[in-house]
Amino acid sequence: MISIIIPNFNKASFITETLDSLLGQLFTDWEVIIIDDCSSDDSLAIINEYLIKDTRFRLIKNSTNSGGSYSRNRGLDDAKGEYLIFLDSDDILSPKCLELRYSSIRNSDYNLVVFPMGTFYKTIGDSPSQWIPKARDNHLKKFLSHDIPWSIMQTIWRKDFLFALEGFDEYYPRLQDVELHTRALLDKGLNYHIDNSGTTDCFYRIDERRLNFNQDDFMLRCYRGIELYITKFSTLLDKKHLKFLRGTYFSFLNQVLNKKITQQINRDTYENIYNKLSTVSLPHLKLSALAKLHLNLYCRLYLCGAYKIKGFNFIFKKIFQKL
């Protein structure tokens, strides 16, 4: 009944825990489709052990390194289940996860149900942080504002609805999950539910090694995702929702300014991204002259150190979205 789709790239250190959490599920009518994206570590050897151990595990190998969205779409195309869950290869499900999610969606007309998520560093319980979406929130506004209410792991989908959405947009180097959820929330056929039980049924691993990467390349990829997101959704939104979209622009601008002032990116990268934000992405937001002045003031004050003032970024973002 449930297909769990897991893209994997060089997660040999963690994938055993992930796959063991699936073997420990109380609900047993599942399949796991692992899409290996040309791993160069011991991932495949570990995965092959599980293929022998349990026939519910299946493996697809990409011929070239193609990214998470491509891998998830391959899993979507191959899935046999009526319902779908997307899981990263270093995250963990609680033993009751599939049982809870199946019970929530099986006798309903929901296309999508969202559950609470916990976080951890090395073992479950070593982090107090949780993602618990609120049913009363305007979730479309939150995604557009880059105040992300849930991640891809927190959801169970009806497969036919995801097929109608045509899965993940493979052009996005970043914001793939945000783009999919935004598109789903704009779809008139969506009927979704936020689980209010408070039961945390999945756990996101906070791996500090993810921070050890080239910040210049990372920020350029982030910009490309931001550009695609703003360009795409600015054409689909009314005036009210277009103002919410300013939150995504502002949040990324804040990140760029922070990387500059802390010298995590070089000057050329900063100027490249800042100029593209101003000339390529910003015009899609259709700002008034006052909103542009507000944004310029924010940048000047930030670079002078005002970001150290408590509430500075929050207040400027809120005003920017209303001007």
Automatic annotation (TrEMBL):
Record-linked CDD domains: Glyco_tranf_GTA_type
Task: List the InterPro entries hit by this protein, alphabetically.
Answer: Glyco_trans_2-like, Nucleotide-diphossugar_trans
Pfam families assigned to the protein according to its UniProt record, in alphabetical order:
Glycos_transf_2
**What region holds the Glycosyltransferase 2-like domain?**
3-130
Q: Which PANTHER family does the UniProt entry name for this protein? A: GLYCOSYLTRANSFERASE (PTHR22916), UDP-GLCNAC:BETAGAL BETA-1,3-N-ACETYLGLUCOSAMINYLTRANSFERASE-LIKE PROTEIN 1 (PTHR22916:SF3)
User: What is the designated name of this protein?
Assistant: Glycosyltransferase family 2 protein
Q: Which organism is it from?
A: Lentisphaera profundi
